[in-house]
Write a structure and sequence with these properties.
By secondary structure, this protein is an all-alpha fold. Helix content is about 80%, strand content about 0%. Keywords: Membrane, Transmembrane, Transmembrane helix.
Length: about 220
């Protein structure tokens, strides 16, 4: 019955595992040529590998963290996995994202988007962590939902990238295509999930408050 009440858990977990299984292996070989983003800047590749590996940890652990049944049944493990999400996932992935975002080969539009995404990702996650430490579970849940939206935005980034490529491939010069596709996908990839997460937080306030109160009691 728990799975029936939360039917999104299974499909979300499947998509995340499939995405990580497809995206991560090329960065575990040590071969620069297999990286999907190429740069002439020397430190770019090791920072990119760190970013991809740690972001993979973040996205997998985050799915477990937002699973209501797991939070209520295993509160101790929820806290332990939360530490992994913050310190082995978001923190190193966000910090490396700031650097590789600054050195991106896809132009200033993608550069600004990637840096802003990294800053917000680190900020939302820190606010969620601080709220949990203060036992402010309602605020913790809100900031964690925003952090989760940015964590999984890499998946929607890829979707928008494919859509932008198909739409623009016959309309713009080939030399400009990578910059336009990267600009569209990087911005749409995280802004749309973040706006949706904010809508989710603001919908049906009375019902949401009751749910948050039950979850706070179970976690506390």
């Amino acid at each position: 019955m728990t799975w029936l009440r939360k039917p999104w858990v299974g499909p979300l977990a499947f998509v995340v595992v499939a995405f990580v299984a497809f995206s991560l292996p090329p960065y575990l070989t040590g071969d620069r040529l297999q990286a999907r983003v190429q740069s002439d800047w020397g430190p770019h590749y090791p920072l990119l590998v760190m970013h991809v590996v740690c972001a993979s940890i973040a996205i997998v652990t985050c799915v477990v963290q937002i699973w209501p049944w797991f939070r209520g049944r295993f509160p101790v493990w929820h806290r332990r996995i939360g530490r992994v999400y913050v310190f082995a996932g978001v923190l190193p992935a966000g910090l490396s994202g700031l650097v590789i975002g600054w050195m991106t080969p896809f132009g200033p539009v993608a550069q600004v988007s990637t840096i802003l995404l990294s800053v917000l990702w680190l900020t939302f996650t820190w606010l969620a962590w601080r709220a949990a430490r203060r036992r402010q579970f309602r605020d913790h849940r809100k900031w964690m939902i925003r952090s989760f939206a940015l964590t999984v935005s890499i998946i929607t980034n890829r979707i928008w990238g494919v859509a932008a490529f198909l739409w623009l491939s016959d309309r713009v010069p080939e030399a400009e295509l990578p910059f336009l596709v990267a600009g569209i996908s990087t911005w749409a990839g995280w802004t749309i999930p973040l706006l949706l997460s904010q809508w989710w937080l603001e919908r049906k306030p009375r019902r949401r408050a009751a749910v948050e109160q039950r979850e706070a009691v179970s976690v506390g």
